[in-house]
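notes to self, project folder thing:

trying the whole complex as one job this time. last attempt i did each chain seperately and stitching them together was a nightmare. two parts in total, labels are on each line so i dont mix them up again. if this works i'll redo the older ones the same way
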Amino acid sequence: MTARLDIEDHLLDEALAWQQSLESDDADWDGYVQWLEADPRHREAFDSVALVNAVVEEHAPAVGDLLAAQPTVDIPRTSRPRRWVAGGAIAAALALVVAIPVLWQADPVTTYRSDPGKSRDFALANGTNVTLSPSSAMVVTGKDAAKIELASGEAYFDVRHDPARTLTVTVNGYQVTDIGTRFIVNAGGGGFHVGVSEGTVSVVAPQSGQAVQIGAGQQMFGDDGGATVAPITPDDVGSWRSGRLSYSDAPLPLVAADIARYSGKAVIVDPSLEKSHFSGILVIGDGTRLLTDLATVMAIRISPEKGGYRLSAARAH
Amino acid sequence: MSPDNESGLEALYGIYRAELLRFLVARTGDASEAEDLLQELWLRARQQNTGPIGNGRAYLYRMAQNLVVDRLREKQRRMVRERRWTDQETDFAAAGVEPADRRRTTEEQMLAREEVATLVSAVTNLPAGARKAFELHKLQGLSHAEVAAELGISKSGVEKHMAVAMKYLRRALLD
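result (full assembly):
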């Protein structure tokens, strides 16, 4: 939150009193303005209280539902179990860069992040192994990791076959469901990419709502406009785990987003190149050569731009 | 909805403009932001097709107050996002490479989920009285008087419970 934590208690009390009294129809706005003018700290205290109030009001329905879903047994405060539990806590401890504190009774929500330059392996509660590619983030909901959302970057999934349950991964509105397979999903460029090396996944695109089966040796790219299916060499799926970025007819914005993650520099794709595709292999190394390698292979231009680089079509000679 | 009512709010704005500006300056501590908010208030007052307004002055103050809080909330969200994404990660929301709306939606869903989780956890750790008062007032929408009747305590008792609850939640959200 923007407000400081160290606001004096009596100022907070005054702010809370005003917050409450302003809710009534005959609120004393003149008195309130005078209170604000009397001391700049009053404004700070009120900001802080107003912000908490706004967050509470915004989430009241969701919070109410979750609280209602909990067992109502009154556990004495002294014997209350640990307050925070990292959801799906497994051998994942190492991979757990940020665990969102979650109430023990409620569906745990855990955010997994990987650092720049390092991929992370972890096991989810349902027997799924995930490798998160560098600078990526994933949100997992539920004790059995029933809902997974790839928020940024790329992840490789190795899902144990278990007909009793399915796993769903959401990526920028696309839903990937599978029963036992190996595949990657990528959220780069705000789009969607799935590549399958083993088994079959079912993908529901946000535009159509129709399920499409993507089998081993197939991939799908999606964006706002729709999705396309293309072949891919199964060995190339998740090849970043062995130091290479392999692309087969991949949209350039997705390639650029990958390179940005590996290089730590923003990569802007000029509108002139937005519809371009790239096929080829880039060696990751320390990430610094990826962009020049790409530009060389594609014969396109790199120009420095604030915080990173811009890719644009080479000037005509 | 008669034209009288529509111009009503705008006319009221004309009457109270000076004191609304004074309020916004006091509220934001920033004269130019206050002017900016006043402009926005005027635009909204013009657009709004309100029915008859009982207390137009209070209505305008409340509108102004809401605009300030909306901006605060937006600013806080932006700060959380920036802290999350631009420091250590190489995502580049600001550069505008990715379709900003969709990307932002995903992030905001994550933030919202985290906020909900924090709130739920904080509420369950409240002292019993504060929790009950908070749930009745903020989650079920009962007035302070109704909460007081429901819990069989005084109105000032409810206010004390609410203060405990809000301060506790503030700490949880800020940490």
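what i see at first glance: Chain A touches chain B through 85 residues (CB under 8 Å).
need to look closer tmrw
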